[in-house]
Amino acid sequence: MIDGTLLPGCPIAWGMVGGGHNSQIGHVHRSAALRDHNFRLVAGAFDIDAARGRRFGEQLGVDVQRCYADYRAMFEAEAGRPDGIRAVSIATPNNTHFEICKAALLSGLHVVCEKPLCFTTAEAKELLELSLARNRMVGVAYGYAGHPLIAQAREMIARGELGDIRIVQMQFSHGFHSEAVEQSSPAARWRMDPAFAGPSYVLGDIGTHPLYLSQVMLPGLKIERLMCSRQSFVSSRAPLEDNAFTLMQYQGGAMGYLWACAVNSGSMHGHKLRVIGARASLEWWDEHPNQLRHEVQGQPAQVLDRGMGYLHPAALQEDRISAGHAEGLFEAWSNLYHRFALAMEATDRRDREALQTILHPDIHAGIEGVRWVENCVRSADAGGIWVDYC
Amino acid sequence: MIDGTLLPGCPIAWGMVGGGHNSQIGHVHRSAALRDHNFRLVAGAFDIDAARGRRFGEQLGVDVQRCYADYRAMFEAEAGRPDGIRAVSIATPNNTHFEICKAALLSGLHVVCEKPLCFTTAEAKELLELSLARNRMVGVAYGYAGHPLIAQAREMIARGELGDIRIVQMQFSHGFHSEAVEQSSPAARWRMDPAFAGPSYVLGDIGTHPLYLSQVMLPGLKIERLMCSRQSFVSSRAPLEDNAFTLMQYQGGAMGYLWACAVNSGSMHGHKLRVIGARASLEWWDEHPNQLRHEVQGQPAQVLDRGMGYLHPAALQEDRISAGHAEGLFEAWSNLYHRFALAMEATDRRDREALQTILHPDIHAGIEGVRWVENCVRSADAGGIWVDYC
Amino acid sequence: MIDGTLLPGCPIAWGMVGGGHNSQIGHVHRSAALRDHNFRLVAGAFDIDAARGRRFGEQLGVDVQRCYADYRAMFEAEAGRPDGIRAVSIATPNNTHFEICKAALLSGLHVVCEKPLCFTTAEAKELLELSLARNRMVGVAYGYAGHPLIAQAREMIARGELGDIRIVQMQFSHGFHSEAVEQSSPAARWRMDPAFAGPSYVLGDIGTHPLYLSQVMLPGLKIERLMCSRQSFVSSRAPLEDNAFTLMQYQGGAMGYLWACAVNSGSMHGHKLRVIGARASLEWWDEHPNQLRHEVQGQPAQVLDRGMGYLHPAALQEDRISAGHAEGLFEAWSNLYHRFALAMEATDRRDREALQTILHPDIHAGIEGVRWVENCVRSADAGGIWVDYC
Amino acid sequence: MIDGTLLPGCPIAWGMVGGGHNSQIGHVHRSAALRDHNFRLVAGAFDIDAARGRRFGEQLGVDVQRCYADYRAMFEAEAGRPDGIRAVSIATPNNTHFEICKAALLSGLHVVCEKPLCFTTAEAKELLELSLARNRMVGVAYGYAGHPLIAQAREMIARGELGDIRIVQMQFSHGFHSEAVEQSSPAARWRMDPAFAGPSYVLGDIGTHPLYLSQVMLPGLKIERLMCSRQSFVSSRAPLEDNAFTLMQYQGGAMGYLWACAVNSGSMHGHKLRVIGARASLEWWDEHPNQLRHEVQGQPAQVLDRGMGYLHPAALQEDRISAGHAEGLFEAWSNLYHRFALAMEATDRRDREALQTILHPDIHAGIEGVRWVENCVRSADAGGIWVDYC
């Protein structure tokens, strides 16, 4: 139960890069980090426009002296303060993640970074080495992973309740970009520009969400080969795709399918997973995140509800209110930041054992997302052929 | 859009009475009030056990000097401080609401009180007069009212999209008290003891939630007569009911039906409203609060989703994230405290016009809930007969 | 499994009164009776307009000699033939049911009659005595009772899986008569004219459907008292109601609630039952009749599907196709006529024991529907007061 | 409206090959053909065991003289009778379809054949030429196509309500064969034996159902290339697959995805289509076949219901009962046989124009199914590569 009492060592002095005025995701980060008082927002380089960023910081209640013109200035100044930030969250366009993340680690900060962590696995490995060398946590913002029923699914699968896993169906397929909204929406525009977004649009921007959830639920599953076919149905988006189908063959013979789509007209999020075992299946849908469907072949289908006593302890430990009340995305993100706070503390203590028990999207999750997009793009650009996963 | 920027005059120095360790609703109040930084928790009399309350306050980060033994001590001490609290939230058992609320008003504080505001309409009117005399806001914790789609329903009905209103179906019917859980759960126990809970259990504890939502959606609807039949299916709960059916005849001929039940085995919340007009109906369900069903006779049923551009501005102004993402109960409560902050400021300015535009459960909502329970109990105790609403 | 093989003694020579051209329910009766070849349509008095009825009969393939001008002619002529009808179905306006049913019994025919069987319990008892004296089956067209999951619910309740029954929620609330459609629709018009429809509209026309299902599921439940409030929201319908709320107190203390409504704008059928016990609830909805929801308090909700091996044999015996395929209303009605054929044979054999095992809406079901409407109307016309059930 | 009145030229004298005792699909064919009295079952070679077939035929009421030992005997004897059959339905294992269908055409019969029509496109073309030469109708048993809302989808797409079609999502993914049920179930066994089933299991047995529905909804859509990956999760089924993923690239750039699966544990049918256009999407699910979801981007989602006046006439012409009542699979099949009867009559009249207006799965649909499986198998057996559709 999370009830607002502070974690040991908290609140953690915290800053943000990006996420300024009109940034929706910036608000989500702040809302999540500050919710349980485990972080305190004391500094920021919120905007590429320094003056606008400063005004915004003041509106948030940040001391104007600590509203910086850019991340370099922030990292340097904060490092010199006795009360300087210990952690930073990065919510900027994709093309800047690598350099900011690297600079933050070099400044000795724990990092929470928007996905993708970077554009290449080579870059990702550089960040990994740096995080190890400096003993700093790098977390990735896979917010959906904080929903308690994701942990429930993981526990049920681990206990063999589904039997051998055969098929993993994943999708994140919304319709909000059925038309070329990027012509009028700046928030959409950079996502479809390779200079800012990197080598993919929907694969990296939304496809990695269900991919990460599948990794949480099925930590032992490893991709052996995959094939990806991608399209730009709004043709001005080429070479970036607004739709992609990916088939995966896992080691051991299980199969995966992931559909990432931004042109699924009329669909809200369409973010779903279905894990199919030899005995039973589990299905979760982010629009009704308080329910998990459990279907045992030959038995009545079951609907599990968040907060109920029949769930595994791992799915109950972060409840904020009893069953029957709808929790939403903000609770999931807050749970994630709660885990990040725990992970930062454990990292500082070099408590590797504790770290193992904190289910959070760490740098390995970030690397895996980058790798998956790389492989998908390699397959798609070769004509949708099967490629060995590397 | 709510994005974390501060309202003018905020944060408001704020204290709590009750809502201590293990109080779920206390956490909800704090989570809601602090979420948008419009309130700052600086004082509390959190527990009937003073030492336990003090420890809990410290864990929340409240200055130990301002963790008080009881509400009287808090109101007196805070009134003497230049930085004393301006507002207090009351989350104690029902039987104490009246005296604490009265004391808070006498101390010049704005008040947010758990329902029921008090036990009799006579008491309620005393609070009303006091709040007017002292120019202080009294808000009641009808948290569901903060869901954006409730405002959407209100706007659609006001615009005549349903035609003349004929029937209002309401229910809050969960199954969590199918057995005598009060024998082991202290949180359940006082709710079923007339000494603490007052003249009703489910009518006042859960029935007033959909009743208030119906009042928000249909501000012009006035009850003319009602009849209520109540039962104690777990017999040790008598004279308090764990199930009640209420039929209402509104002025003008529309009919209402409200089912309050705590023994609806296997049901989660079962908190639903359906408003039926001559042309169309609206239906809302708190377990999937981001959807509103709009059924026009002779046309395909429509499902409206929170955050979409086709909604009325009143249903969009408190969005925290774009459509497709699930918002939950905490967002609804935060919206409510956001409105309470606005209402406190408007009250202080004596800006009656602004106050009219802030859709919040004020003291009149509190009075109406008390009156409704009084009438229901009067009918039920007379054998379930029709009584004139008074 | 029903697979088209003939029952012993079948097909039964069968005629119809009413149900002619443009009669929807007439088609449903024929479709149901002929589906499994247990009946053969050989005679009819299909229409009040004799010539039109004759033409229609011919289009159905009935020998023109056996297309009669009225039911009296048919009963007389058929009685004189060696191959004359053994059974008749009555699908005429309500006000004629009693006299036709009586004449059929006097002619030695088995009868399937549309509800209501008649208008008063006195009439109903006369029919009962006649059916006993002549040893003929009288069945009533409660078609929904043929859905296999109704039998499943009955079995689960009988086995105590729900615990003591506390509350029965029933509703049949559609929106198709939100406006005064009777001004242009002959099929609707007579239903709202007391001369043809009798003392009620929605209570008798749709309310008795869920009432009968509750009797099937809960054969031991007896109404002790009830109160009914009825309205004519389309005022030209008065004194007949287009909406009615009925509360029932059963012997032993359980409570029932039945909402019958024809002005529930935008609703399709809204035909639902929820039976609530001390341990669990069951819920069934006629728009998705292949599913039955089973909710045990404290456990995941379960969805049972028609045709699955985990169901009771009584819920499997009339399957026509394996699970997963949608069966609909026509299958339910066909099952009912299948049972009527079995019941006619058993009646002819005077095999009372067999008759007990055939779950069909017999004359007692017909009487009970008439009685319930009588009591509801008595309560409503006295101002919605509680009346002893008699 | 279908109401039981006979079509001109009907009933058609009709026989069956296969579909005997314990054959579920045989019952479905008979139930569908006889439902509206457009066919009369007068002959049959119901079983490979002649005596058992004769007994079964008698139980169905077929003259024992016309219960034949095999199809050859039946075709020969019936051809010699003045009242001989005009049409035959074939419900035997897959490997016999070609020869029986050919023999029927050579005997001058109209044919309704279970899918697949045959095993190779070469065979299919031979049947096509024969049907043209003999002027006989060949229909294929794609029963789901008879659901009225399929016609509604076709009309809406034809009118451009979805905008340019971009993506077609198809699936038929049940869980009934998660285990090796074929070891005990004869009905399952032959389906997984290449000698009887042909080159595929789930692709041909269930995958062609949504494929055909997509062809009905989107008659102009032509596959250009496809890739298929198939698995035998129950390994004893190899080389036949119990799961297959197929990606299709259509001429003009739209994409299709079809998932056929018999090991989707806990799923009932999982038979769904979603057609996505630039403006809107349509979604249909066979377990709730009376609803069609219409999602226009930026507008509330709509749920269309069978039988409602806002539907296109093509979706209303085969209604058997008004909206709100659940129709099921049997109605869909009956509608199909209704169309087959119309098509047989039109074929006999050589009325090509009328034939064009009767939406039925004709021999071209049969050929297309065979071709699709051929292409899928070719791709899958080459390692899941893209192949040109031929």
Structure commentary:
The structure is a homotetramer. The first copy, chain A, is of the alpha/beta class and about 400 residues long. Chain A has 2 domains: about 10-140, Rossmann fold (3-Layer(aba) Sandwich), CATH 3.40.50.720; about 145-325 and about 365-390, 2-Layer Sandwich (Dihydrodipicolinate Reductase, domain 2), CATH 3.30.360.10. Helices cover about 35% and strands about 20% of the residues of chain A. Chain A has helices spanning about 25-35, 50-60, 70-80, 95-105, 120-135, 150-160, 185-190, 195, 200-215, 330-350, 350-355, 365-380; strands at about 10-20, 40-45, 85-90, 110-115, 140, 165-175, 225-230, 245-250, 255-260, 270-275, 280-285, 290-295, 300-305, 385-390. In chain A, the strands form 2 sheets. The first copy, chain A, has a 9-stranded mixed beta sheet. Chain A has a 5-stranded parallel beta sheet with strand order 2-1-3-4-5, sandwiched between helices. In chain A, helix 1 (about 25-35) crosses helix 10 (about 330-350) and helix 9 packs across helix 12 (about 365-380). The radius of gyration of chain A is 21 Å and the shape is globular. Chains in contact: A-B, A-C, A-D, B-C, B-D, C-D. Chains A and B meet through helix 1 and helix 10 of A and helix 1 and helix 10 of B.
- Average pLDDT taken over every residue of chain A: 96
Number of helices of chain A: 12
The assigned structural class of chain A equals: alpha/beta
The CATH architecture of the largest domain in chain A can be given as 2-Layer Sandwich
In order across it, which strands form the biggest sheet of chain A? 13-12-11-10-6-9-8-7-14
Number of strands of chain A: 14
The number of domains of chain A is: 2
Please state the oligomeric state of the protein chains shown.
homotetramer
Q: What string, H for helix and E for strand, traces the elements of chain A in order?
A: EHEHHEHEHEHEHHHEEEEEEEHHHE
- CATH names the topology of the largest domain in chain A as Dihydrodipicolinate Reductase, domain 2
Shape of chain A: globular
Backbone CA Rg of chain A: 21 Å
Domain Gfo/Idh/MocA-like oxidoreductase N-terminal (chains A, B, C, D): 13-142
Protein name (chains A, B, C, D): Gfo/Idh/MocA family oxidoreductase
Pfam family, one (chains A, B, C, D): GFO_IDH_MocA_C
InterPro entries (chains A, B, C, D): Gfo/Idh/MocA-like_OxRdtase_C, Gfo/Idh/MocA-like_OxRdtase_N, Gfo/Idh/MocA_oxidoreduct, NAD(P)-bd_dom_sf
